[in-house]
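Shipment paperwork, digital attachment
Item: protein structure file
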Amino acid sequence: MRLVIARCSVDYTGRLTAHLPLATRLLVHKGDGSLLVHSDGGSYKPLNWMSPPCRLDVEEPDADSAAAGVQEYWRVTHAKTGDALLVRIYEVLHDSSHELGIDPGLQKDGVEADLQRLLAEQVEVIGDGLTLVRREFPTAIGPVDLLLRDPAGGTIAVEVKRRGDIDGVEQLTRYLELLDRDPHLSPVTGVFAAQEIKPQAKVLAADRGIRCVTLDYEGMKGVDSGHLRLF
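Attachment content:
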């Protein structure tokens, strides 16, 4: 993994366009080829990124850019979609590379891990006719809890929480943005599943086109939760 702190501007072109003006940022170039652009705020969320499969090419700036202070271009191109992330480097403040090795993956504990496991075994809780593709489906910013297929061949990404709040909806939104860039998965819809979902999270999810599902943990374990049911 390469970590670079640099004064830079960033432009994303492709199915969407976005611009980050000149500022000091952290550039994370990972071993899988992905590039993530971070600021000092916004918690763990990158400002922009390019997910694999992609390649990074370092180019010399044109005369006008060089005269404006650009030292080099980083051009990251997605191998399948052709989307491109162009980083104009004005000044490098830090540059280091680190070998992290193979990561064992996120080990969730307690109720949340059990919920994910039970839901993977009982995907009919989400909807009829669904099939499990994979648990912990990898993306450049972390694994999606469950990836499902519907009978029509559509893809469903499910984020599982014990208590669902706005941060969980934001997390799923970022996963959906990444997954939907893959033509083998697109279009991708989202399901936010939790034992308890806060009202604000439900409103935000509805605005993002994400469906909310409240999970009965005791019922999924085969234990009567004490709540009245029709069946």
